[in-house]
Design brief:
Elements: E1 32-36, H1 60-70, E2 74-78, H2 88-95, E3 101-105, H3 113-121, E4 124-130, H4 141-151, E5 157-161, H5 167-176, E6 181-183, H6 197-209, E7 213-216, H7 220-223, H8 234-243, E8 248-249, H9 265-270, H10 272-275, H11 279-294
Parallel strand pairs: 1-2, 2-3, 3-4, 4-5, 5-6, 6-7, 7-8
Helix pairs in contact: 5-6, 6-8
Organism: Phreatobacter stygius
Protein name: 2-pyrone-4,6-dicarboxylate hydrolase
InterPro entries: Amidohydro-rel (IPR006680), Aro_Compnd_Degr_Hydrolases (IPR052358), Metal_Hydrolase (IPR032466)
Length: 297
């Protein structure tokens, strides 16, 4: 963690909506936001050189206030690429949470085994990789496989960001992974005219038949063609929940880096009963599944 004083960089992406609406839907006790981020503050947690975007600061205090407004009890903080391989913004938040937070780290092969063990002790439960081809962001697959073997004894999972059209090409690799793999944002499916039905069908089949595959039913604002309140996303979420009701997760994705249209997080809670009206499935999605995957105490 750095405490060096430095000038605030100019943000290149939208800021989160500061006026979170109180949702009409009441989240059950123990609800976990399974995909969210903390950004900065830059003066304490500097953004990485060479980053692809510069966010507005979205610090721990704002993070806590958001969850208080929404009724979220637990969170899994995913370290964002703007912080590079410095995971201290996540581990410091976990340390202050009294057991309410866990995290997903950004790592590479430079991390020693002891450093990975230390991250586990600090509440890290997985590491994230981006496989979005149009961004030129696919990792070296040999290095990826070596990292997978190193995290396996730690009980970690890999958190993966795809776009739906690329998923079929990676299905054989995913099925062979020896650790749980969690796919972000409904696999990057696109609602509306650009929807690739064959790719989404492959994604549903993978989730249905691969017991190591988990799905984050997150990011409706990223995949919606219609905009708020994102009801065109509901059929995709329902299909994924039906495919593996015990391996789906919900989250806000706050503060929504790189979105074109900033959502109000109240809408992201109120869409849940449109995904499923079954209280047992809501309990699984919001509470039980994340407790099991991330091993909350």
């Amino acid at each position: 963690m750095s405490t060096t004083t430095m000038s605030q960089p100019e943000p290149t992406i939208l800021a989160p909506d500061p006026d979170t609406r109180t949702p009409a839907f009441s989240l059950p006790p123990g609800t976990c936001d399974s995909h969210c981020h903390i950004f900065g503050p830059h003066a304490r947690y500097p953004y990485a050189p060479g980053r692809s975007y510069t966010p507005h600061d979205a610090p721990l205090a704002a993070f806590r206030a958001l969850h208080g407004k929404l009724g979220v009890a637990r969170a899994v903080i995913v370290n964002a690429t703007c912080h590079g391989r410095d995971n201290s913004v996540v581990t410091d938040a976990i340390a202050e949470s009294g057991g309410r937070y866990l995290g997903v780290a950004n790592i590479d092969e430079s991390f020693t085994d002891r450093e990975l063990e230390r991250l586990t002790e600090q509440g890290i439960r997985g590491c994230r990789f981006t496989f979005v081809r149009r961004l030129g962001a696919v990792p070296d697959l040999a290095a990826f496989q070596r990292i997978v073997q190193r995290i396996r004894p730690l009980g970690w999972h890999v958190d993966l960001y795809f776009e739906a059209q690329d998923v079929p090409d990676f299905v054989p690799m995913l099925r062979a992974l020896p650790v749980p793999h969690v796919i972000d944002h409904m696999g990057g499916v696109r609602a509306g005219a650009s929807h690739d039905a064959a790719a989404f069908a492959a994604l549903v089949e993978l989730l249905k038949t691969d017991e190591q595959c988990w799905m984050k039913v997150t990011g409706p604002e990223r995949i919606s063609a219609a905009g708020p309140p994102f009801r065109d996303v509901v059929p995709f979420a329902r299909a994924l929940i039906a495919a593996a009701p015990d391996r789906v997760l919900w989250g806000t994705d706050w503060p929504h880096p790189n979105v074109k249209l900033m959502p109000n997080d109240g809408d992201l809670v109120d869409i849940v009963p449109h995904y499923t009206t079954d209280p047992a499935l809501q309990q699984a999605l919001l509470v039980d599944n994340p407790a099991r995957l991330y091993r909350f105490a």
